[in-house]
Amino acid sequence: MLSTSIVKMSSFTSIIGGVSVIRPNGEKKTRNINAELLLTALIDAFSILVIFLLMSFSSTGELLMMGKDMELPKASADVLERNPVVKLEAGLLFLEDKPVTADGLVQALLDLRKNFQETRPGEEFPAILTVQADRRAKYEQLSGIVQASAHAGFSDIKFAVVIK
Amino acid sequence: MSKRHRHLEFEINLIPAIDLLSVCICFLLLTAVWLHVGALNVKQAVGGQPASETAKKPTVWAQINGVGDVQIDVRDSRVSAKLAKAKIEGKNGKPDLEALASFAGALKAAEPELTTVLIQPQAATLYEDIIDLMDSFKKQGLIDLGVSPL
User: Fold this and answer.
1) Which residue has the higher pLDDT, B130 or B4?
2) Do the domain assignments include residue A64?
3) Is residue B74 part of a domain?
4) What percent of chain A has pLDDT over 90?
5) If you measure CA to CA, which chain B residue comes closest to A40?
6) Are residues A45 and A86 in the same domain?
């Protein structure tokens, strides 16, 4: 039965050109050692990957750190620059990743301004604040940030959004 | 004269190209930013200039509530009464962005100098709805946006 079986003499040809031979009768195996790798397809795939990754490349890097539960709203927006960030996450406020209370936010922002003026005398303070909040947050939670930034003299607020 | 035979079969060494592409892919994968974050700018009045000294310019006041209804009031403008006051009702608890866009477009056509919008959200208004509202105004050329605190 084995003599008529398909496994009596089966050969498999791989894409690299080598040939593996199965001989159940125990005959000597012969193997073609010359293997040629087809590199053109590999170069094509690599080129496509590089183009895709170059398109998603950002020279500014990650400016905001986001928790897994945070979803930013979507809008067509301008480029985000590095500014002091006030984050509203799970009802808590963070200024530059340091927790602050709603009442203490004005003072924290004023301290930020004071530090800037001490470290860079003669330079004008940019007075720009980035606000990072979840899209499902209610305005009653955000209103305090808007109010505090106005009190601390931050004339520009940049709401962080995912670019549509 | 002896004929010169040119050998047409040639091979390009692809190994350096593969090396270069592999290094590029590794670098780009490590530095890739998958989420493109932008910023929607809002200007705030800071300082104590009296209202009487401020030059009056046409301004849109847009009140938005928690179910997406938007009440629009255009002040210091010569637009028709129909455009000056309007209510755009929300759709499924969200602002009707198509209706808002067409209304803002009509406003901008009637008063080309109109660039300022002051948004007045309520406590229950979702942050996402405020951003959508600002985005639809901005797309129609109303670029000076402001948000009033509660």
Assistant:
1) B130
2) no
3) yes
4) 13
5) B14
6) no
B40 in A contact zone (CB under 8 Å): yes
| B16 φ/ψ angles, rounded to the nearest 5 degrees | -60, -35
Residue in chain B nearest A153 by alpha carbon: B46
**pLDDT at A50 exceeding the cut of 90:** yes
By Cβ distance, the residue of A50, A74, A130 closest to B25 is A50
Looking at residues B33-55, what average pLDDT do you find? Answer: 72
Strands of A28-144, DSSP E: 74-75, 78-79, 85-89, 92-95, 98-100, 128-133
What predicted TM-score, i.e. pTM, was given to this entire model?
0.74
The tokens describing B88, both together, are 């755009």
Shortest Cα distance from B1 to chain A (angstroms)?
40
Q: Please indicate, yes or no, whether residues A43 and A108 belong to a single structural domain of this protein.
A: no
Task: Write the single-letter amino acid at A119.
Answer: T
Give domain status of residue B77, yes or no. yes
Q: What is the pLDDT of residues B75-128, one digit of tens each?
A: 887 778 778 888 888 888 889 989 988 988 888 888 888 888 899 999 999 999
Neighbours of A40 (CB within 10 A): 9
A54, A60, A155 ranked by CB distance to B46: nearest: A155
Q: Are A87 and A28 in the same domain?
A: no
pLDDT in tens, B49-68: 565 666 678 888 999 988 88
Q: What ipTM score was computed for the predicted complex, to two decimals?
A: 0.76
Closest alpha carbon to B38 in A81, A61, A129, A77? A77
Q: Which of B139, B137, B128 is nearest to B62 (CA)?
A: B137
| Mutation target vs B (from A55, A65, A159, A163; most B CBs, 10 A cutoff) | A159
Question: What residues of chain A lie within 8 A of the CB of B128, using their CB?
Answer: 73, 135-136
